[in-house]
Amino acid sequence: MSDRRPRAAWRRAPEPPATASPAPTPAPASPASRPSVVQATLYRDGHRVSSPDTLAETFRQLREHPEGMAWIGLHRPTESELHSLAAEFDLHELAVEDALEAHQRPKLERYGDTLFVVLRAARYLDAQEEVDFGELHVFVGPDFVITVRHGAAPDLSAVRHRMEKDPDLLALGPEAVLYAILDAVVDGYAPVVAGVQNDIDEIETEVFGGDPAVSRRIYELSREMVEFQRATRPLVGMLHGLMAGFAKYGTDEELQRYLRDVADHVTHTSERVDGFRQALTEILTVNATLVTQQQNAEMRALAEAGFEQNEEIKKISSWAAILFAPTLVGTIYGMNFDNMPELHWAGGYPFAILLMAVVCTSLYVIFKRRDWL
User: Fold this and answer.
1) The whole model's pTM is what?
2) What is the pLDDT of residue 225?
3) CA 1/CA 4 separation, integer angstroms
4) What pLDDT is recorded for position 64?
5) Each residue of 302-346: pLDDT tens digit?
6) pLDDT single digits (tens) 54-71
7) Percent of the chain, pLDDT > 90?
8) How far is Cα of residue 175 from the mean position of the Cα atoms in its chain?
9) 118 with 136: CB under 8 angstroms?
10) Cβ atoms 298, 278 nearer than 8 A
11) Is the N or C terminus of the chain more exposed, i.e. has fewer CB atoms within 10 Å?
C-alpha cells in the first residue's frame, strides 16, 4: 500500500512499561526449523531485512522497526503458535479458530484493520489422475501478512521469491502480498483445468468404447468438480468485494489492475468448471443410455436364443409324439400272447399298419397346423 497507516491505527498488543513487573509472555514460539513455521521474514521498502529464527524474535524486530512488514508462513501450526500470533497482532478469536480447524469455505472477512481470507488451492496429480485440494488462511494487517497452510498446495515459496524480485511491488505493503497470493492460487487452477479437460476427453472415448469401469470414473470426477466449484465460485464474489473497496481504502492503482486481472482469470476458471460439471452430467446420461441399450440388446439376444431353443424343442417333441404312436401299436402287438384275436386274423397285419399310418398322419397334421413342424 502506498499510504501506510501509522502503527497506532491498529490494535497491536502494547508492550509493558519498563517499571512494571514482568508480564506473562505469550506461549513460546516454535523455531523456524520446525515443520509448522515455514519462514518468517521482515521487509522494509520492498527489500528483505532479516529472517528471524523464531516468532518471538520476529515480534521483537517488528517492534523495533515499525516501518517494516513481517511475512510469516506456517504449515499446520499448533494451537500455541497461533495463539502467540493472535496475542501479538490482536487477531480475532473467531478467525484464529477457523485457521486452527480448517475445512472452511472460501471467504473474506474484515476484523478492524485486519483482513482474514480463506482460499482453496488445487493441484492436478498426473499419476492418480485426480485433483488434490489444499486450504490457505491469510491474515493481512497494516504491517504483517500471516499465511496458514493446510495441505500441499499452494507453493507460497514461489510467491515469496517472485515478490522479492519486484521490490517496487513488494514495497506497496501487505495488500500487494495478498494479491500475489490470490494470483498464485488462481494461476494454480490452470493446470487443474487442463488435466480435467484431458480426463473428460478420455472418459468420452471410454464411454463409446463400452468400458464398464467408466461410470465410477465419471462419478469420482463429478465429485471433484463439486469441490472445485466450491473453491472457485466464492472467489468471484470475494474479488469483486475487494474491488468495491478500492476507493474507500485507497488501494494503489497498480494493485487495482493486478486484482482486476486475477478477477478475470477466476471468472474464466469458474465458468470452465461449471461447463465441466454440466459436461460430466451429460456424459453420465449418455453412458446410462448406452448401458441400457446394451442391456436391452443382450436381453433381446437372450430372448431370441430362448425362442429359437423353444422352437427346436417343439420340433423334437412333435416328432417324438409321431414316432411314439407306431411304437406303441407295435409294442402291443409284439407281446405274443395267445389270447389276442388279432394275431390269428388275416387282416391283422394290414390293420396294424393302417392304424399306425393314420395315427402318425393325424399327429403330423395337428402339429403342422400349430406351427410346431
Assistant:
1) 0.70
2) 92
3) 6
4) 85
5) 888 888 888 888 888 888 888 887 888 777 777 766 677 766 677
6) 888 888 888 888 888 999
7) 16
8) 31
9) yes
10) no
11) C
11: left (phi over 0), alpha (psi -120 to 50) or beta: beta
Task: Give Cα separations from 315 to 193, 319, 359 (angstroms).
Answer: 64, 6, 17
How much of the chain is helix, strand and coil, in % rounded to 5? 60, 15, 25
SS3 category, 36: coil
The beta-strand segments (E) located in 102-246 are: 107-111, 114-125, 130-141, 144-150
Q: All 3 cell numbers of residue 101?
A: 480447524
Pick from 94, 92, 115, 119: nearest CA to 107: 119
H/E element holding 311? Answer: helix 253-333
**Can you read off the three cell numbers belonging to residue 241?**
468485494
Task: Round to whole Å and give the CA distance between 109 and 119.
Answer: 12
Ranking 16-25, 277-286, 357-366 by mean pLDDT, the lowest is 16-25
Please report, as a single letter, which amino acid is at residue 41: T
What the block records as the C-alpha cell of 198 is 484431458
Residues near 44 by beta carbon (within 8 Å), at least 6 away in sequence: 65, 67, 68, 69
- Which residue carries 399327429 as its cell? 363
- Find how far residue 73's CA is from the centre of its chain: 27
**Distance, C-alpha 236 to centroid of its chain:** 19
Whole-number Å distance between alpha carbons of 43 and 53: 15
Cis before residue 52, ω within 30 degrees of 0?
A: no
